[in-house]
Amino acid sequence: MKQSKRTTISLLVLSLIGLWLFVSAPAGTTEISISTDSDIFKLPSFGLGVGFVSGIAFAAQVLAVIASGYFVLGRNHKTPRWVVILFAVALVFEILVGLFAGKTMTFTSLLQGSLALAVPLIFGSLAGVLSERVGVVNIAIEGQLLAGAFVSALIASLSDNMFAGLIGAVIAGALVAWVLAVFAIKYVVDQIIVGVVLNVLVVGLTNFMFSTLMVSNLPFYNQPPRFDKILIPLLGQIPVLGPVLFNQTLIVYLMYVAVAVVYVALFKTRWGLRVRAVGEYPKAADTVGINVFRTRYVSVILGGALAGLGGSFFTLGQVGAFGKEMTNGAGYIALAALIFGRWNPLYAAFAALLFGFAENLQYGLAIIGSSVPSEFLLMLPYALTVVAVAGLVGKVTGPAASGKAYIKS
Amino acid sequence: MKLELRGITKRFGSMVANDNVNLIALPGEIHCLLGENGAGKSTLMNVLYGLYQADGGEILLDDKVVKFSGPGDAMAAGIGMVHQHFMLIPVFTVAENVILGHEPTKFGSLLDLEAARAKVREVSAKFGFEIDPDAIVGDLPVGVQQRVEIIKALIGDAKVLVFDEPTAVLTPQETDELMAIMKQLRAAGTAIVFITHKLREVQEVADKITVIRLGKVVGEADPKSTANELASMMVGRAVDLDVEKDPAKPGKPTFKVEGLSAWSHAGTKVLDDINFEIHEGEILVIAGVQGNGQTELTEAIIGMHGKTAGSIQLDGRELIGKNVKQVLDLGVGFVPEDRTEDGLVAEFSIAENLMLDRSDRKPFAKGLNINLDYLKKFALEKLKQFDVRAQGIESKASQLSGGNQQKVVLARELSRELRLLVASQPTRGLDVGSIEFVHEQIVATRDSGIPVLIVATELDEATQLGDRIAVMYKGKIVGIVPSNTPRATLGQMMAGISA
Lengths: 409, 499
Description:
The complex is a heterodimer. Chain A is globular, with a radius of gyration of 23 Å. Chain A is mostly helical. Chain A folds into 2 domains: 6-102, no CATH class; 132-349, no CATH class. In chain A, helix 10 (250-268) packs across helix 11. Helices cover 69% and strands 4% of the residues of chain A. By secondary structure, chain B is α/β, with parallel strands linked by helices. Chain B folds into 2 domains: 3-235, Rossmann fold; 253-494, P-loop containing nucleotide triphosphate hydrolases (Rossmann fold), CATH 3.40.50.300. Chain B is built from 17 helices and 24 strands. In chain B, the strands form 6 sheets. Chain B has a 6-stranded mixed beta sheet with strand order 6-9-10-3-11-12, with helices on both faces. Chain B has a 6-stranded mixed beta sheet with strand order 18-21-22-15-23-24, with helices on both faces. The relative contact order of chain B is 0.11. Classes of the chains: A mainly alpha, B alpha/beta.
């Protein structure tokens, strides 16, 4: 069989961006700082010539394209993953250096901000994974996040206890998921429609409660205590990554655990095998005595609980108060991360990190006053994602029974 | 373990699918449940397997009454089932499929895949299957998938094993191998219930035969009965299974396919350099296991397939590049393989279905309107001519039985001026009476001097109906042979070995 040239062609097209950046690279240097004060050993910051870096990065891209062409045309072999990764790293680095030309790029804070933006996305994509793997399309991630954000703020404020808020968020997310599950599984309503309706419903409900209840006495209803950052000894002092990953709030640490647990549960346990079986071919699962309906309810509701937890990060982990529609479409981005991540919790988490990084980049650039319009930057990651999904990820097939109700004869 | 079904009754609404059915299967015995499509065989087995709840009657295992509220209970009690449509998850490995529902675990609930692999190897070795426990099921050939399904049933330590129409998707060789496996299981003391409507298979392996018709047991048959005797019992009247036809009197070759290739949406080659011709007054049967390019071939002929190359000529005119309407207008009659999906509009009346292809022209069209008077006259005439049993021409197509639906399709297609008839599995799922009728119509079409192309997946139909047989395998024609070619040779050709 002949190998598809699609990957090679996609890389070639993307390398044109690299070429353009190289040709139009301004003279000057980008200062890169990768240490923070708490590191055990400090790495000095250093400056890189923009033209020089662009040149090297572009050369690496050209090499990657040649390598891809060699493997596909010469050896009739798929483009190896490392070629794609080499290409991606080179292009991203070239873009970064170009964007920060003449400025200082504080790598650590860039990553910190990215992670913060990615936390709800990761929780959301886990909710999507659990739901879609069992055969229920979860468009309601947005609603689950928002419900979690609202309820956690309210309960934590009333009880003056953030743990109570956390539990409230979990219940709220699970509740939204339960409604989705009942309509999708019991009443066999189109799952996408239920999901969209739920999102609208939660926006309306939280807006209404916010305007009528919270605004009446903000300190009483909407001033939850926030989680403090916990620095993990040793791990937190690793250069660059330490402060990013291991100086975080409890919710972030819960997220690490959640990603690992969902991954192991889904692919290594009896429960996960059954969940995936139900999502692929419910009738086959039924004929070996698996309760399709119960499996679906449990998995969808667990997913909702995780999304609710993710929602609490907006209020208890970050802002410290609820705001109208504060999730701002994160649920939909989580959905994209889930598909980009091929319904795999680990890949989806990486995809979510990528989206978080891209979103954070525009904030970072706005602060240093880059000349690139921020709207353009906001668009860039998604435009690149479309190309990447179409060209590099290739045909992704989700669980076969996702979106299809199971009707027992 | 002895299985007894006593007085099982199952209703769906007002329809009685099983009416007081009794059946006893003993260890070390193959018990055939013989009946036409829709006689209620699968319903009965679904009751046994806990998928349906019976409205009356009881199930006994070793003379003790058991109640199954779901397939899990049935499995636990020692009943295994090899389903007609495999209950396998294509993206899972063999081992994962086999253990699903009763997974071996370690450390609490972690899957123990090593134990699963060992189990698959153990059962495989016992029956001489060579199956890699780590193979992805969707990548395996259908015959091997069925073995996975068998392993899955056996691994639960099944004492009663039900095979529901297991040979529908197999080549003749694979069928022979399955028969051998069934005999092996019988020797090991398993009670086997074998559901089928294929008489040849019944005659080969049955120890006991229970015949079921319209949901009722009509009696037990002697395993030494002839095919015609069994068929008569199954249908309820004397039937002659042989197709009545005189030797063909072929005329000029007016239909020619040369170098025809076609590609799927995904870009894989589904037809590979197909060459054949059909003479006037001749039936060419395309034989082969389902899914070897037959569907694509018929689609390419009538202009429904996307990417094609080569040449298809009818009366010297090229069909490739023409759309469906243009092809039909050149005189091609087409009976699609899925009559409910592609042959009829289920929610339309019989009359409307009868004019689907010509509703835009005289005499059916009158200006912008439909000539209802003519349509009525035409429909009544066709109903009579093709013996369609329906309340009237206003009945919806969906209300008809499979046989009557197929008659409506034939009535429409044969009422045009034909220069070629293409019929894909024209008797699939029909009762014996309708099969006879359809065969007669096809032979009559041939005798009127029209070239006929039939796609058949059942070898018996291919040899009886065809004047010549072309065997397809993986998108290629393995060979074109006369219809009196021995079964064994045809079977080998269906597995890709040219004669």
